[in-house]
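All the exercises in this workshop are built on plain-text protein records. A record pairs a protein's sequence with a compact description of its fold. Read left to right, the backbone structure tokens trace the chain's path through space. Once this layout is familiar, the rest of the handout is easier to follow. Here is such a record, shown just as it appears in the course material:
>
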Amino acid sequence: RQALQRPDVRKIVHSALLAFQSDVDVQLAACRLINRLAYDQHSKALPDTVGTIRVAASLAEHVEENDLVEVAACAMSSLLLHADNRRAIEDSHLLEPMWMVLQHHQHQRNVLLYTCGIISSLAFDNDACTQTLHGLGAASWLVQVADNNHDDQALLRGTLAGLRNLSSNLTSHRRAVINAKAVPLCLTILKSQLDHADLSFWCCAVLANCCREADAAEEAAALQAHAYCQYLVKHHDQATRVVRAAS
């Protein structure tokens, strides 16, 4: 894999994506390869800004190709773990068309999962991308996905991680998440997942952001958030992040 991560090899893959834009098989193979080359030997995400743009373009241009959309979305969720690749998407103006394609494939569970990862990564410490995502209705979309998939822990984790990052910095961003009904969602999930440390952590992380706004804190208190947090502190290891978040 390291040999294939050389710049000259990456350039061949990028060129193939550009030269064979209408060939679904080439796009599928190239996106799959880019995804496999997205991490180093320590599983750390690598910069590949050109590859990121090519994959986003492939997504935007092949809306009806289910397999390609799934593979490209998977690759994008991997690529966006690196800050350089996130900036490339922000500068490319491909976020909105990419979002529209992903919305078209909500019936594919894996695409839902990858979309949650894409939202979470793009919103991480990036107010401009977060603002764009809010304009596209990402918070309401995440809440809807969670509401429709209460038995799917991986999807719940993905939606909660996205909501946490969408609500991290600015009051207007927190307000959009609050208005999407994230507070009652988190408490509903928390009530049924108190013994699941990871999901409980993400619920508390979203609540901690939202409750910086007084009305959200009042709503959470009315829904017995304090009782759930006390349970987490009492029944989980004191050194864990779920206890820190609950506290």
Summary: The mean pLDDT is 93. The chain is about 75% helix and 0% strand. Residues 55 and 72 are 6 Å apart (CA to CA).
